[in-house]
Amino acid sequence: AKVVVVMILWQQMSVFINMMGFLMTTFGIYFLFRATITTGEDVDWLLKSLVAASLIIALSMTIEQLTGRNVFADLGRSALSAVRGGRLRAQGPFQHPISAGMFGAVMLPLYVMQLHRGRPNKIFWIIGATAAFVIVIFSASSGPVLSCIAGLGALVLWKIRDQMRMVRWT
Q1: Is 18 exposed, middle or buried (0-12, 13-18, 19+ CB in 10 A)?
Q2: Which residues of 33-68 are buried (b: 16+ CB within 10 A; e: fewer)?
Q3: pLDDT digit of tens for each residue in the chain (170 aa)?
Q4: Which of 26, 53, 104, 115 is exposed most, by the fewest CB atoms within 10 A?
């Protein structure tokens, strides 16, 4: 829908090329994951890799929060962190602090779920959840915080998923 709306709105060839690149990236990632993640072990490996990535991002955002300088500045990111309402908004390797915070907000419920399922290496999932929480907090954005609350709330309601009709009516 985004592609059609943007192309109708702008009606330029450069926008068309940009949107085709967007579609190729989206479908390419989908088919890459579809081809490579076929078993539960693949999902476990992916989640463990995401914990490592979350830890690196959280450490970089902590440094950014303490120094005010993005450690990824040499790779094309903005050197100075954004400030809004007197609060530093770390972005790490992401294009914007909101994107960084949403990454943490999506990862936090996944790590908490792994911890709750009684998976081995509980300390590993605790580190991942802590890193995701740090990412959300240091992004200093309300959208990721609310998404985090919604995701964790969904996990709390998981046990009563069979009675959700009653919960919705209540």
Answers
A1: middle
A2: eeeeeeeeeeeeeebeebbeebbebbebbbebbeee
A3: 677 777 787 777 888 888 888 889 999 999 999 999 999 889 889 999 999 999 999 999 999 999 888 888 877 666 666 777 778 888 888 888 999 999 999 999 999 999 888 777 889 999 999 999 999 999 989 999 999 999 999 888 888 888 888 888 88
A4: 26
Distance CA 91, CA 63 (A): 11
Of 66, 46, 140, the closest CA to residue 100 belongs to 140
Global confidence as pTM? 0.80
Q: What proportions of the chain, in percent to the nearest 5, are helix, strand and coil?
A: 75, 5, 20
C-alpha span between 70 and 64 (Å, rounded): 5
If one counts every other C-beta atom within 10 angstroms of the C-beta of residue 108, the result is: 25
